[in-house]
Amino acid sequence: MTPRLDMIGLVVSDMAASLAFYRRLGLDVPADADDQPHVEAALPGGLRIGWDTEETIRSIDPSWTRPTGDGRRELAFLCDSPAEVDALYAELTGAGHPGHLKPWDAFWGQRYAVVLDPDGCGVSLFAPSEPAT
After folding, report:
1. CB of 75 within 8 A of CB of 32?
2. pTM here?
C-alpha cells in the first residue's frame, strides 16, 4: 500500500479568525465551526484541510510550542484570472489582513500576490498571465 496525502493540517491561534479568512478564499467551512477545537473541510479532488487550535495540539502533544519565524507553511490558491488575483488581494487586505506581496506580473508567467492569514502565514494568490493580444 502506498500512503497518500489526505489532509493538510493548520494549527491556529484563533479559530474564528482563521476560518473567516479561509471562507473569504472560497473554502466551504461549516458555518457553526468557529468555536470548535478541530474543524475540517473537503477540498476538490478529495483532499481535506483541517484546523486545530493551539490548545488542541497541546492536549495531544504537551511539548508542542508555537513556531517562530516566517515561511513555515504556505498555501497557494489558483484564481480564474489576473483580475481575480487583484480583486481577492484587495478584498482580503481591505478586510484587515496584511498584504505581503502586492499583485505583480511574475516573470514565470503568472499574476501573483501573497497575503498573510491571521497566524501570519503566507497565502499565495495566482493566475496564469493573460496572453498578449
Report:
1. no
2. 0.85
